[in-house]
Design goal:
Its EC number is 1.5.1.2. The chain is an alpha/beta fold and about 270 residues long. It contains eleven helices and eight strands. The chain folds into two domains: about 160 residues, Rossmann fold, CATH 3.40.50; about 90 residues, ProC C-terminal domain-like fold (Orthogonal Bundle). Strand 4, helix 3 and strand 5 form a beta-alpha-beta unit. The radius of gyration is 22 Å and the shape is elongated.
């Protein structure tokens, strides 16, 4: 029997996952349940499609045994209290909530089968990075099935130690901001040189996109790539000297370490 799949929390992350599941036909539509206390977030799915919509989590939970919980971490306690009494003990819970541990989810819901994920925002385009860990109750067969679905939203890496997810949060979860900040800096530098804003924006973003694709598709180590494109006495070398003078690499490292420390703090509260 194939159980209904219930998404609880249809915000940026939950909504992105739902959209990919619908677009890729990853689950039979009539067995998809979408739940959010904000009815406005469900409106885009109220178009005659066969998915079922709920604003009451208790009612949605009664009709499923497989859940993707994508609510804000600070809302998790209230949700768990509400659904615990109606959750089937054999349910599978997949969480996208940062800082909410597997142990907390198990003890708060009474369910032993939990997969905790740390996706980042590019899952919206099927280009995300997803780190994940799971409870001991997740069998090898369940892991394989989970991977068969998650590959549609980006690259995934499994980590036996759940604590590693705090590092993924710092590097990848917050990563889109790092890239956007670099894009903004390049764009503003172009404007300062005299380029129109629109052209500077296009150039900055396309440069980041193309360079990232080269690193990924050609499997070049970043250090090797830098050496290959930095000609002695050239323009790129002059830019690198400024980066080195201001120790840009260390600044980025400090930023990631600060994000990691915050992720650990949030996890310790859960």
């Amino acid at each position: 029997m194939k159980y209904n799949l219930c998404f609880i929390g249809i915000g940026n992350m939950g909504g992105s996952l739902v959209d990919i599941f619908l677009h890729k036909n990853l689950w039979e539509r009539k067995q998809l349940l979408l739940c959010d206390c904000d009815e406005r977030k469900l409106l885009k799915y109220a178009n005659g499609d066969s998915v079922k919509l709920f604003t009451d989590a208790t009612e949605a939970v009664r009709q499923s045994r497989t859940f993707v919980i994508a609510v804000k971490p600070q809302d998790s306690d209230a949700l768990f209290r509400k659904i615990r009494m109606v959750l089937h003990p054999d349910s599978l819970i997949i969480s996208t909530m940062a800082g909410v541990s597997i142990n907390t989810i198990c003890s708060s819901t009474g369910c032993n089968a939990v997969i905790r994920t740390m996706p980042n925002l590019p899952v919206m385009l099927g280009k995300g990075m997803i780190g994940w860990a799971c409870s001991a109750a997740i069998s090898q067969k369940m892991k394989i099935r989970f991977r068969s679905k998650i590959r549609y939203i980006g690259k995934e890496l499994y980590f036996p130690e759940e604590e590693t997810l705090d590092k993924i949060t710092a590097l990848s979860g917050s990563g889109p901001m790092y890239i956007a900040f670099i894009a903004l800096s390049l764009m503003e530098a172009g404007i300062k040189l005299g380029l129109p804003e629109q052209e500077a924006r296009i150039i900055a973003i396309q440069t980041l996109l193309g360079s990232s694709m080269m690193l990924a598709q050609l499997a070049i180590h970043p250090e090797t790539f830098i050496a290959q494109i930095t000609s002695k006495g050239g323009t790129t070398e002059q830019a690198m000297k400024i980066f080195q003078h201001h120790d840009l690499k260390n600044i980025i490292t400090e930023a990631v370490e600060a994000a990691f420390a915050r992720a650990q703090t949030l996890s310790s509260h859960k």
